[in-house]
Amino acid sequence: MIRKSVSVGLALVAVAALAFVLSGAYAQDKPGTMAPPGAKEVTLNGKIVDLQCYMTGHFASEDHAKCTADCIRGGVPAGLETKDGLIVLGQGMKGAAGAVLAHAFNNVKVTGKLYEKGGVRYLDITAVEAATPAPEKPAAPAAPPAKPAPEKKP
């Protein structure tokens, strides 16, 4: 009787272990077990923001550039607000603060490798510079004065 119970118990443990391994759940917490996402080299334009103020809309002061710089300096992650949405910024293992701090809440041109995974976009930056303002368009020439309507004769 004991032998039969041990055999059934071992069989159940083996089935459970096989199901666990086949489910892939064991790999979820181990670093390096998931295939790295592909990256593409890009140059993007946008505004440097800190994620706390950007996401909550709560700035500690009326000076948004100073507030953004203070937050980034304090460790809040930086992001790039683009016309296509927000991209989280980083610079390898050290973060992006050193590269973007001088450009806080200003428009920039950023170059780096763009990764996309799970709905999040991350740019590992290699260069950042102030965006050059768009050249002003010359004013359109004034339209010639309208000719008066011909007078009607009675």
The first-level CATH class of the largest domain is given as Mainly Beta
Q: Helix content range of the residues, please?
A: 25-40%
Spans of at least 5 consecutive residues with low confidence: 8-30
Radius of gyration, in angstroms, nearest whole number: 29 Å
Which percent range describes the beta-strand content?
Answer: 25-35%
3D architecture notes:
It is built from four helices and five strands; from the N terminus they run αβααββαββ. It is of the alpha+beta class and 154 residues long. The protein folds into two domains: 1-31, no CATH class; 39-130, OB fold (Dihydrolipoamide Acetyltransferase, E2P) (Beta Barrel). It has a five-stranded mixed barrel. Strand 4 and strand 5 (120-130) form a beta hairpin. The longest helix is centred in the first third of the chain and has 22 residues, at 2-23. The radius of gyration is 29 Å and the shape is elongated. The protein starts with a helix and ends in a 24-residue tail after the last strand.
Keywords:
4 helices; single chain; 5 strands; OB fold (Dihydrolipoamide Acetyltransferase, E2P); five-stranded mixed barrel; 29% strand; alpha+beta; 154 residues
Short description:
With 154 residues, the protein is α+β, with helices and mostly antiparallel strands. The protein has 4 helices and 5 strands. Strands 1-2-3-5-4 form a 5-stranded mixed beta barrel.
Topology readout:
Blueprint: H1 2-23, E1 39-50, H2 51-56, H3 64-73, E2 78-82, E3 85-90, H4 97-100, E4 107-117, E5 120-130
Parallel strand pairs: 3-5
Antiparallel strand pairs: 1-2, 1-4, 2-3, 4-5
